[in-house]
Amino acid sequence: MKCYQVLYLKTCIFDNNFNNVLFLTTMEFILDKTKEINPFKEYDKVTWRSPSNIALIKYWGKKENQIPANPSLSFTLSESYTETCIVYQEKKEADKLSVQFMFEGEENLQFKQKIELFLNKITKYFPFLPKLHLAISSHNSFPHSAGIASSASSMSALALCLCSIEKKHFGTLISENEFFTKASYIARLGSGSASRSVFPYVASWGEIIENPISTDEYASVLPFEMHNNFKNFKDAVLIISKQVKKVSSTAGHGLMEGHPFAGQRFVLAKHNLKKLLLVLKSGNEDGFIEIVENEALTLHALMMSSNPGYILMHPNTVKAIEKIRDFRNKTGIKLCFTLDAGPNVHLLYSDNDCAEVEKFITDDLLQYCEDRFWIADRLGIGPVKIS
Description:
Distance between the termini: 36 Å
Mean pLDDT: 90
Structural class: alpha+beta
Number of helices: 9
Low-confidence stretches: 1-8, 10-27
């Protein structure tokens, strides 16, 4: 009889809309199994499209093994995504990884090295990886490294592909819940924010007492149904700059170690998340605006007060924010901004106000965008497997 080890984690079952928790259960991750159910062919292929997300409560600072220093919450996007394809086949030597990587149709050595480090890190969860040659190709629907969470979409897409390979050849991860929970767990090890991208509409990551299914090890959906006021929200991503950030998010997280305001920040994040959960349940749009804009500015204040300090906002970022606040005060339309770790502005608003807001974008905000470029995005249904 052949044995294999398993890793048990707390997880939960949701209804079909991922809104309501039905009950808690446990799941197992394959660690070592010697016989696959469906043998590997000469070659096979799997493709996933996974979205980016925009954090409303920001995760900034982490502990070892990609554990967050504070909980976070994000809206899952729709049009800002990464599509990743893995063509794989069994190889004779099953002793080390064999990887090819293409990004936007071209070889990218820097990204390949990152992918190889990640795959080596997670081989204990996918022990079949050294047995395969992986030809990975990936492309984004948005500019890379400009402040949209490209790591969230790319690492979640890769994790989903790997889970599909395991499911097909080993007969594990049969239930939808087990599949996406493991994908979130694995994605987290590559990029913390990627853990949230595998779930639709809104997801939180990090253990909080307000959500009994929450954990630091993977993301989860809300323990209640979000109010209708937010279900049709759109996100206009104003691309202030397409340039690669001067300071990466990884470096920024590292600068939270020893940051003079780190302790207060982690307390504030938990407090703001607690308030935001109440807002998302009640539909309080004014409360939503207050919390979300405060979180965005706090994130960049932490960057500026790091040692060394740095600034990722551009002058046009500030000008766009001022225009947004003026427009809201004059019209009474409940739109608000948030920022990721970069200069670009996410403008959140209800689809009910689409005509007025998009005219405002065209008339007043595009002058601050590089090449007048923006992305019309919205809350999304989460990742999609491509046939």
